[in-house]
User: Fold this.
Amino acid sequence: MQPQQVRVGILGGSGYGGAELLRRLLQHPLVTLSGVASRQYLGRPLAAAWPHLAGVTEATFADEAEVIGGCEVLFTATPHGSTALLVRQALDAGKRVIDLSADFRLSAEDYARWYGQPHPCPELLSTAVYGLTELHRDEIRMARLVANPGCNATAANLALAPLAAHGLLGEQVLVSIAAAASGAGRSPELGLHYSEVNENVRPYKVAGTHRHIPEVEDTLGRAATMGRRLKTHAPAWRPTITFTPHLIPMTRGILASCAIYPTQDGVTESELLALYGAYYRAEPLILVQDELPQTKAVFGSDRCLITVRRDLRSGWIHSFAVIDNLGKGAAGQAVHNLNVMLGFSETLALLGALWP
Ligand SMILES: NC(=O)c1ccc[n+]([C@@H]2O[C@H](COP(=O)([O-])OP(=O)(O)OC[C@H]3O[C@@H](n4cnc5c(N)ncnc54)[C@H](OP(=O)(O)O)[C@@H]3O)[C@@H](O)[C@H]2O)c1
Assistant:
């Protein structure tokens, strides 16, 4: 039987995540874009916010209630804190939701601790599935609410999950992130002006303060204790990671450079590469390669490139992953999740897939 067209809506259509959702969904063969919301651009053409869409679509921005009412599946690309209530409205109206914000990624306790406020809809947290597609596919298929992962967390988790699943993760896990400026969204901010970012590299949110830390610890803990059969919250064990992000003078892209001191001695680099290759063998958007990856190779795409090294001198294992923060780190992963939820061919409308 041929899959049917599905009506899809976007909240936050005037932001970067919204723009990348539009890029993919407008060319998705099984999607009808039923509505796109923005408060700033209400009633104006999509091209008012995104000039590259002039002549491509005549659609105009609508309000949130109209977009929720008209769709079957809703993408929320809106800020954390204000998204949860919009998600509740959509779920109450019987819609399925893919949320790009952080509102449904953590337990209520972790949300309060890391986001500094009580969760607005704790009763919905058990409905949410953490949407790291490659690890949680079976749960995503059935989900009413998918919590799309954070961009830095996606890169770190994909770089480290094979080590976690093979019991190699010990107490020492270091994650260093190089992150491009679009990761902070489109709203103007002093530290993100061109003249502040250009020709500058600086660490930010260091020493255990970055909000993606609990997502990585949860995911690696689940991968370590349960392989790929996962439940959304509260793994039996989770590592404590050291997470150091750096803002780099680029528009898009993330490099996760990770290091662990393994629980077992004697594993060789070629064994590690084979282990990574086997772990991601069936994944159309992940390429395990011998070469060290670079962000330019994934610019504008939905792919993740990964490799691993053994430092024989110190004993540490290093793994590296690159993604585009707005692709695999946001809209690309969200559309991948849509394809999984609806039983479509997984790579429909995605960019740079290795095979269909
Ligand atoms: N940028 C990334 O690399 C990235 C990666 C992964 C996840 N995310 C997450 O995805 C979400 C969107 O990120 P972004 O980078 O697209 O942000 P953005 O560029 O700042 O866009 C945010 C959008 O939300 C709308 N908005 C702002 N306040 C709102 C409110 N109170 N209620 C409803 N809509 C509101 C804005 O449009 P109007 O003001 O016109 O309504 C805008 O379209 C965020 O939660 C972010 O953390 C971002």
